[in-house]
Amino acid sequence: MDLWKWRPHLVLDMKRILDKTPIGLWDKVSAHLASSMDKTFNKHSGNLESCIITYRCDGCTLQNWIRHATRVKHTKDLTLNYVHGRRPRRYTYRGTQMLDMPYEIFSHHSLTSLSLSGYTLLGGHAFTNCGNLKTLKLLNMVIFWVSTLTSVLAACSSLEVIVLQLAFSKDDSVLKIENKKLKFLQMSFLHYVKRIEVNAPCLDVLDIRDVKCENKNSFILTSPNIQFNQSDWISSLFYLPHISYNVSELAQETRNIWHDLLMSDFPGTTRQGTLSVSIDITNPKEVEILKELLLMWSTYTMIELEIFFKTNNAPREEEEDGECSNERLWEDANPFPNADFRVNNVWMYNLNSSNKEEFAFASRFVMQKTVIETLMIETSSCSDGVATVAKLMELPKGNEDLSVGWFR
Protein backbone atom coordinates (compact mmCIF):
# COMPACT_ATOMS: atom_id res chain seq x y z
CA MET A 1 0.00 0.00 0.00
CA ASP A 2 2.85 2.40 0.72
CA LEU A 3 5.40 1.42 -1.96
CA TRP A 4 4.16 4.12 -4.37
CA LYS A 5 5.10 6.81 -1.84
CA TRP A 6 8.77 6.11 -2.44
CA ARG A 7 8.71 5.80 -6.22
CA PRO A 8 10.89 8.46 -7.93
CA HIS A 9 8.34 9.06 -10.73
CA LEU A 10 4.87 10.49 -10.03
CA VAL A 11 2.00 11.07 -12.48
CA LEU A 12 -1.09 13.07 -11.48
CA ASP A 13 -3.60 12.93 -14.34
CA MET A 14 -7.12 14.38 -14.46
CA LYS A 15 -7.65 13.82 -18.16
CA ARG A 16 -8.73 10.17 -17.99
CA ILE A 17 -11.61 11.01 -15.69
CA LEU A 18 -12.56 14.29 -17.40
CA ASP A 19 -12.73 12.53 -20.77
CA LYS A 20 -15.60 10.45 -19.34
CA THR A 21 -17.28 13.41 -17.62
CA PRO A 22 -19.97 15.65 -19.23
CA ILE A 23 -18.57 19.09 -20.06
CA GLY A 24 -21.15 20.76 -17.80
CA LEU A 25 -19.68 19.00 -14.75
CA TRP A 26 -16.02 19.67 -15.54
CA ASP A 27 -15.58 22.58 -13.10
CA LYS A 28 -17.09 20.67 -10.18
CA VAL A 29 -15.25 17.43 -10.94
CA SER A 30 -11.95 19.27 -11.59
CA ALA A 31 -12.13 20.99 -8.20
CA HIS A 32 -12.73 17.63 -6.49
CA LEU A 33 -9.87 16.00 -8.42
CA ALA A 34 -7.53 18.90 -7.61
CA SER A 35 -8.19 18.39 -3.90
CA SER A 36 -7.56 14.67 -4.22
CA MET A 37 -4.36 15.22 -6.20
CA ASP A 38 -3.17 17.73 -3.60
CA LYS A 39 -3.57 15.14 -0.83
CA THR A 40 -1.80 12.49 -2.91
CA PHE A 41 1.09 14.85 -3.63
CA ASN A 42 1.52 15.58 0.08
CA LYS A 43 1.50 11.88 0.99
CA HIS A 44 4.43 11.09 -1.30
CA SER A 45 7.74 10.66 0.51
CA GLY A 46 11.25 11.32 -0.72
CA ASN A 47 12.45 13.22 -3.76
CA LEU A 48 11.25 12.90 -7.36
CA GLU A 49 13.20 12.29 -10.53
CA SER A 50 10.18 13.23 -12.63
CA CYS A 51 6.65 14.52 -12.08
CA ILE A 52 3.88 14.82 -14.69
CA ILE A 53 0.79 16.87 -13.82
CA THR A 54 -2.12 16.88 -16.28
CA TYR A 55 -4.80 19.07 -14.78
CA ARG A 56 -7.60 21.63 -15.04
CA CYS A 57 -7.72 23.99 -12.04
CA ASP A 58 -6.94 27.54 -10.93
CA GLY A 59 -3.51 29.15 -11.12
CA CYS A 60 -3.08 29.35 -7.34
CA THR A 61 -3.32 25.57 -7.01
CA LEU A 62 -0.84 25.12 -9.84
CA GLN A 63 1.63 27.48 -8.17
CA ASN A 64 1.44 25.45 -4.97
CA TRP A 65 2.09 22.22 -6.90
CA ILE A 66 5.08 23.75 -8.71
CA ARG A 67 6.60 24.98 -5.46
CA HIS A 68 5.98 21.64 -3.76
CA ALA A 69 7.48 19.73 -6.70
CA THR A 70 10.62 21.87 -6.81
CA ARG A 71 11.24 23.22 -3.29
CA VAL A 72 10.04 20.17 -1.33
CA LYS A 73 10.36 17.17 -3.69
CA HIS A 74 13.44 18.49 -5.55
CA THR A 75 11.95 17.27 -8.84
CA LYS A 76 14.44 17.17 -11.71
CA ASP A 77 12.00 16.72 -14.62
CA LEU A 78 8.64 18.55 -14.41
CA THR A 79 5.85 18.30 -17.01
CA LEU A 80 2.69 20.47 -16.83
CA ASN A 81 -0.20 19.79 -19.22
CA TYR A 82 -3.41 21.84 -19.16
CA VAL A 83 -6.60 19.93 -20.09
CA HIS A 84 -8.84 21.85 -22.52
CA GLY A 85 -12.36 21.12 -23.65
CA ARG A 86 -12.97 18.56 -26.36
CA ARG A 87 -12.25 19.85 -29.85
CA PRO A 88 -11.78 18.24 -33.28
CA ARG A 89 -8.30 16.95 -34.09
CA ARG A 90 -7.77 19.68 -36.69
CA TYR A 91 -7.19 22.13 -33.83
CA THR A 92 -3.48 21.63 -33.26
CA TYR A 93 -2.84 24.69 -31.06
CA ARG A 94 -5.26 25.08 -28.20
CA GLY A 95 -3.26 27.23 -25.81
CA THR A 96 -6.12 29.18 -24.25
CA GLN A 97 -5.11 28.87 -20.57
CA MET A 98 -3.14 31.92 -19.49
CA LEU A 99 0.12 31.02 -17.77
CA ASP A 100 0.77 33.82 -15.29
CA MET A 101 3.31 32.61 -12.75
CA PRO A 102 5.39 34.59 -10.20
CA TYR A 103 8.98 35.62 -10.86
CA GLU A 104 11.60 32.84 -10.79
CA ILE A 105 9.09 30.08 -10.00
CA PHE A 106 10.99 27.70 -12.30
CA SER A 107 14.44 28.74 -11.09
CA HIS A 108 14.99 26.16 -8.33
CA HIS A 109 18.41 24.53 -8.64
CA SER A 110 16.99 20.98 -8.59
CA LEU A 111 14.83 21.52 -11.70
CA THR A 112 16.78 20.71 -14.88
CA SER A 113 13.98 19.80 -17.33
CA LEU A 114 10.65 21.60 -17.86
CA SER A 115 7.85 20.79 -20.31
CA LEU A 116 4.75 22.98 -20.69
CA SER A 117 1.74 22.16 -22.89
CA GLY A 118 -1.55 23.93 -23.55
CA TYR A 119 -0.88 27.50 -22.40
CA THR A 120 -0.86 31.08 -23.60
CA LEU A 121 2.30 32.80 -22.41
CA LEU A 122 1.96 36.56 -21.94
CA GLY A 123 5.35 37.32 -20.39
CA GLY A 124 8.60 35.65 -19.47
CA HIS A 125 9.04 36.69 -15.82
CA ALA A 126 8.38 33.13 -14.58
CA PHE A 127 11.62 32.12 -16.32
CA THR A 128 13.80 34.81 -14.74
CA ASN A 129 17.20 33.44 -13.64
CA CYS A 130 16.45 29.95 -14.93
CA GLY A 131 20.07 29.01 -15.55
CA ASN A 132 19.25 25.69 -13.85
CA LEU A 133 17.24 24.41 -16.83
CA LYS A 134 19.00 22.16 -19.36
CA THR A 135 15.86 21.08 -21.25
CA LEU A 136 12.88 23.26 -22.17
CA LYS A 137 9.84 22.08 -24.14
CA LEU A 138 7.06 24.53 -25.02
CA LEU A 139 4.37 22.49 -26.79
CA ASN A 140 0.94 23.34 -28.14
CA MET A 141 1.33 26.91 -26.89
CA VAL A 142 0.49 30.45 -27.96
CA ILE A 143 2.92 33.32 -27.37
CA PHE A 144 1.67 36.79 -28.25
CA TRP A 145 5.06 38.35 -28.89
CA VAL A 146 8.13 36.80 -30.53
CA SER A 147 10.25 39.00 -28.28
CA THR A 148 8.77 37.19 -25.24
CA LEU A 149 10.18 33.87 -26.47
CA THR A 150 13.55 35.51 -27.12
CA SER A 151 13.67 36.79 -23.54
CA VAL A 152 12.61 33.39 -22.12
CA LEU A 153 15.35 31.54 -23.99
CA ALA A 154 17.92 34.18 -23.01
CA ALA A 155 16.99 33.79 -19.32
CA CYS A 156 17.53 30.01 -19.58
CA SER A 157 21.25 30.35 -20.31
CA SER A 158 22.23 26.70 -19.71
CA LEU A 159 19.79 25.03 -22.11
CA GLU A 160 21.12 22.02 -24.03
CA VAL A 161 17.76 20.90 -25.48
CA ILE A 162 15.02 23.22 -26.82
CA VAL A 163 11.75 21.92 -28.30
CA LEU A 164 9.26 24.53 -29.56
CA GLN A 165 5.74 23.96 -30.92
CA LEU A 166 4.20 27.42 -30.93
CA ALA A 167 1.81 29.86 -32.51
CA PHE A 168 2.51 33.61 -32.50
CA SER A 169 0.27 36.60 -32.90
CA LYS A 170 1.23 39.03 -35.66
CA ASP A 171 4.62 40.35 -34.59
CA ASP A 172 7.50 41.94 -36.51
CA SER A 173 10.17 41.06 -33.93
CA VAL A 174 13.22 38.93 -34.68
CA LEU A 175 13.43 35.59 -32.87
CA LYS A 176 16.95 35.19 -31.49
CA ILE A 177 18.24 31.92 -30.07
CA GLU A 178 21.74 32.46 -28.72
CA ASN A 179 23.16 29.76 -26.48
CA LYS A 180 26.70 28.47 -26.08
CA LYS A 181 25.59 25.12 -24.63
CA LEU A 182 22.67 24.28 -26.93
CA LYS A 183 23.02 20.85 -28.60
CA PHE A 184 19.48 20.00 -29.79
CA LEU A 185 16.95 22.40 -31.33
CA GLN A 186 13.52 21.35 -32.62
CA MET A 187 11.05 23.94 -33.96
CA SER A 188 7.52 24.09 -35.31
CA PHE A 189 5.79 27.47 -35.70
CA LEU A 190 2.20 27.76 -36.90
CA HIS A 191 2.49 31.37 -38.09
CA TYR A 192 5.07 33.34 -40.04
CA VAL A 193 8.06 34.75 -38.21
CA LYS A 194 9.77 37.78 -39.71
CA ARG A 195 13.30 36.54 -39.04
CA ILE A 196 14.98 33.74 -37.05
CA GLU A 197 18.60 33.98 -35.90
CA VAL A 198 20.21 30.94 -34.28
CA ASN A 199 23.70 31.26 -32.83
CA ALA A 200 24.68 27.95 -31.19
CA PRO A 201 28.33 26.91 -31.54
CA CYS A 202 27.74 23.48 -29.90
CA LEU A 203 24.56 22.57 -31.81
CA ASP A 204 24.64 18.96 -33.07
CA VAL A 205 21.00 18.43 -34.09
CA LEU A 206 18.68 20.87 -35.88
CA ASP A 207 15.15 19.52 -36.40
CA ILE A 208 12.80 21.79 -38.34
CA ARG A 209 9.20 20.57 -38.45
CA ASP A 210 7.40 23.62 -39.81
CA VAL A 211 8.93 27.09 -40.06
CA LYS A 212 7.62 29.94 -42.20
CA CYS A 213 9.62 33.15 -42.67
CA GLU A 214 9.08 36.17 -44.90
CA ASN A 215 11.76 35.15 -47.43
CA LYS A 216 14.62 32.74 -48.04
CA ASN A 217 17.15 34.95 -46.26
CA SER A 218 15.14 35.22 -43.04
CA PHE A 219 16.62 32.12 -41.36
CA ILE A 220 20.19 32.72 -40.16
CA LEU A 221 22.08 29.80 -38.60
CA THR A 222 25.54 30.12 -37.05
CA SER A 223 26.67 26.66 -35.96
CA PRO A 224 29.97 25.10 -37.11
CA ASN A 225 28.87 21.52 -36.35
CA ILE A 226 25.86 21.70 -38.68
CA GLN A 227 26.61 21.23 -42.37
CA PHE A 228 24.10 21.46 -45.20
CA ASN A 229 23.63 22.89 -48.66
CA GLN A 230 22.05 26.12 -47.51
CA SER A 231 20.65 27.30 -50.84
CA ASP A 232 18.79 24.03 -51.50
CA TRP A 233 17.79 23.60 -47.86
CA ILE A 234 16.41 27.14 -47.51
CA SER A 235 14.38 26.82 -50.68
CA SER A 236 12.60 23.76 -49.26
CA LEU A 237 12.78 24.69 -45.58
CA PHE A 238 9.43 26.43 -45.52
CA TYR A 239 7.58 23.54 -47.15
CA LEU A 240 9.27 20.36 -45.94
CA PRO A 241 10.74 19.35 -42.57
CA HIS A 242 14.52 19.16 -42.32
CA ILE A 243 17.02 17.58 -39.93
CA SER A 244 20.74 18.33 -39.70
CA TYR A 245 22.65 15.85 -37.55
CA ASN A 246 26.32 15.90 -36.57
CA VAL A 247 26.99 12.21 -35.94
CA SER A 248 29.36 11.70 -33.02
CA GLU A 249 30.04 9.15 -30.31
CA LEU A 250 27.59 10.62 -27.83
CA ALA A 251 26.71 8.92 -24.57
CA GLN A 252 23.99 6.31 -25.09
CA GLU A 253 21.64 8.09 -22.68
CA THR A 254 21.93 11.33 -24.67
CA ARG A 255 21.34 9.50 -27.96
CA ASN A 256 18.20 7.87 -26.53
CA ILE A 257 16.81 11.27 -25.54
CA TRP A 258 17.47 12.70 -29.00
CA HIS A 259 16.03 9.60 -30.63
CA ASP A 260 12.74 10.01 -28.73
CA LEU A 261 12.56 13.71 -29.63
CA LEU A 262 13.23 13.07 -33.31
CA MET A 263 10.66 10.28 -33.44
CA SER A 264 7.94 12.34 -31.76
CA ASP A 265 5.30 13.53 -34.20
CA PHE A 266 3.45 16.77 -33.59
CA PRO A 267 -0.33 16.55 -34.15
CA GLY A 268 -1.22 16.96 -37.81
CA THR A 269 2.34 16.63 -39.14
CA THR A 270 3.87 14.00 -41.39
CA ARG A 271 7.54 13.16 -41.66
CA GLN A 272 8.42 13.98 -45.24
CA GLY A 273 11.53 16.02 -45.74
CA THR A 274 15.29 16.26 -45.94
CA LEU A 275 18.19 15.02 -43.83
CA SER A 276 21.79 16.25 -43.62
CA VAL A 277 24.41 14.27 -41.69
CA SER A 278 28.11 14.82 -40.96
CA ILE A 279 29.96 11.56 -40.34
CA ASP A 280 33.33 9.85 -40.20
CA ILE A 281 32.37 6.81 -42.26
CA THR A 282 35.54 4.97 -41.18
CA ASN A 283 34.35 5.00 -37.57
CA PRO A 284 32.20 1.90 -36.86
CA LYS A 285 30.47 3.58 -33.92
CA GLU A 286 29.43 6.58 -35.99
CA VAL A 287 28.22 4.27 -38.76
CA GLU A 288 26.00 2.46 -36.26
CA ILE A 289 24.55 5.80 -35.12
CA LEU A 290 23.89 6.74 -38.76
CA LYS A 291 22.10 3.42 -39.26
CA GLU A 292 19.87 4.14 -36.26
CA LEU A 293 19.11 7.59 -37.63
CA LEU A 294 18.19 6.35 -41.11
CA LEU A 295 16.02 3.56 -39.74
CA MET A 296 13.95 6.20 -37.99
CA TRP A 297 12.81 7.27 -41.47
CA SER A 298 11.82 3.79 -42.65
CA THR A 299 8.08 4.56 -42.35
CA TYR A 300 8.37 8.10 -43.78
CA THR A 301 9.40 9.69 -47.07
CA MET A 302 12.91 11.12 -47.38
CA ILE A 303 13.20 13.57 -50.28
CA GLU A 304 16.89 14.51 -49.97
CA LEU A 305 19.78 12.95 -48.05
CA GLU A 306 23.01 14.95 -47.72
CA ILE A 307 26.11 13.16 -46.41
CA PHE A 308 29.15 15.20 -45.42
CA PHE A 309 32.24 13.05 -44.92
CA LYS A 310 34.42 14.28 -42.07
CA THR A 311 38.16 14.54 -42.58
CA ASN A 312 39.53 12.33 -39.82
CA ASN A 313 43.19 11.37 -39.62
CA ALA A 314 42.91 9.56 -36.29
CA PRO A 315 44.60 6.13 -36.14
CA ARG A 316 42.37 3.18 -36.94
CA GLU A 317 41.33 0.65 -34.35
CA GLU A 318 43.04 -2.71 -34.66
CA GLU A 319 41.65 -6.12 -33.84
CA GLU A 320 43.56 -8.83 -31.99
CA ASP A 321 44.82 -10.35 -35.23
CA GLY A 322 46.36 -7.01 -36.23
CA GLU A 323 43.87 -6.15 -38.97
CA CYS A 324 42.14 -2.79 -38.97
CA SER A 325 38.51 -3.34 -38.00
CA ASN A 326 37.39 -0.54 -40.34
CA GLU A 327 38.54 -2.47 -43.40
CA ARG A 328 35.80 -5.02 -42.73
CA LEU A 329 33.17 -2.39 -42.12
CA TRP A 330 31.39 -2.82 -45.45
CA GLU A 331 31.97 -6.54 -46.06
CA ASP A 332 28.47 -7.30 -44.77
CA ALA A 333 26.23 -7.89 -47.79
CA ASN A 334 23.01 -6.89 -46.00
CA PRO A 335 21.35 -3.69 -47.30
CA PHE A 336 22.21 -0.49 -45.43
CA PRO A 337 20.41 0.53 -43.30
CA ASN A 338 17.86 -2.13 -44.31
CA ALA A 339 16.01 -3.40 -47.39
CA ASP A 340 13.02 -1.07 -46.89
CA PHE A 341 14.81 2.29 -46.68
CA ARG A 342 14.29 4.60 -49.67
CA VAL A 343 15.41 8.12 -50.55
CA ASN A 344 14.72 10.13 -53.70
CA ASN A 345 18.11 11.87 -54.03
CA VAL A 346 21.48 11.53 -52.28
CA TRP A 347 24.26 14.13 -52.23
CA MET A 348 27.71 13.11 -50.94
CA TYR A 349 30.17 15.89 -50.06
CA ASN A 350 33.94 15.73 -49.60
CA LEU A 351 34.16 12.16 -50.86
CA ASN A 352 37.72 10.86 -51.22
CA SER A 353 37.68 8.19 -53.92
CA SER A 354 40.98 6.76 -52.62
CA ASN A 355 39.35 6.13 -49.25
CA LYS A 356 38.15 2.52 -49.45
CA GLU A 357 35.45 2.90 -46.82
CA GLU A 358 33.95 6.04 -48.37
CA PHE A 359 33.91 4.50 -51.86
CA ALA A 360 32.44 1.25 -50.51
CA PHE A 361 29.74 3.28 -48.77
CA ALA A 362 28.87 5.09 -52.01
CA SER A 363 28.85 1.74 -53.83
CA ARG A 364 26.19 0.46 -51.45
CA PHE A 365 23.82 3.21 -52.56
CA VAL A 366 24.40 2.29 -56.21
CA MET A 367 23.98 -1.48 -55.88
CA GLN A 368 20.98 -1.37 -53.53
CA LYS A 369 17.50 -0.09 -54.36
CA THR A 370 17.97 2.62 -51.75
CA VAL A 371 18.22 5.63 -54.10
CA ILE A 372 15.26 6.21 -56.40
CA GLU A 373 16.41 9.06 -58.69
CA THR A 374 19.96 10.48 -58.38
CA LEU A 375 23.25 9.99 -56.55
CA MET A 376 25.58 12.99 -56.75
CA ILE A 377 29.23 12.98 -55.64
CA GLU A 378 31.28 16.07 -54.73
CA THR A 379 34.92 15.71 -55.80
CA SER A 380 37.99 17.93 -55.57
CA SER A 381 38.68 17.92 -59.33
CA CYS A 382 36.99 17.23 -62.64
CA SER A 383 39.20 14.25 -63.47
CA ASP A 384 38.62 12.70 -60.05
CA GLY A 385 34.87 13.17 -60.44
CA VAL A 386 34.76 11.54 -63.87
CA ALA A 387 36.89 8.61 -62.69
CA THR A 388 34.80 8.06 -59.53
CA VAL A 389 31.49 8.14 -61.42
CA ALA A 390 32.91 5.74 -64.03
CA LYS A 391 33.89 3.25 -61.31
CA LEU A 392 30.46 3.53 -59.72
CA MET A 393 28.70 3.08 -63.05
CA GLU A 394 30.55 -0.21 -63.58
CA LEU A 395 28.74 -1.65 -60.56
CA PRO A 396 25.43 -3.49 -60.96
CA LYS A 397 22.62 -1.03 -60.29
CA GLY A 398 19.96 -1.88 -57.77
CA ASN A 399 17.72 0.63 -59.50
CA GLU A 400 18.03 0.72 -63.30
CA ASP A 401 16.75 4.31 -63.48
CA LEU A 402 19.38 5.59 -61.04
CA SER A 403 21.42 8.53 -62.33
CA VAL A 404 24.98 8.98 -60.96
CA GLY A 405 26.87 12.25 -61.36
CA TRP A 406 29.52 14.48 -59.79
CA PHE A 407 29.89 18.15 -58.82
CA ARG A 408 32.44 20.42 -57.14
From TrEMBL:
InterPro entries: F-box_plant, LRR_dom_sf, LRR_FXL15/At3g58940/PEG3-like. It comes from the Eukaryota. Pfam families: LRR_At5g56370 (PF24758). Transmembrane segments: none annotated. Residues 63-210 form the F-box/LRR-repeat protein 15/At3g58940/PEG3-like LRR domain. This is F-box/LRR-repeat protein 15/At3g58940/PEG3-like LRR domain-containing protein. It comes from Eruca vesicaria subsp. sativa.
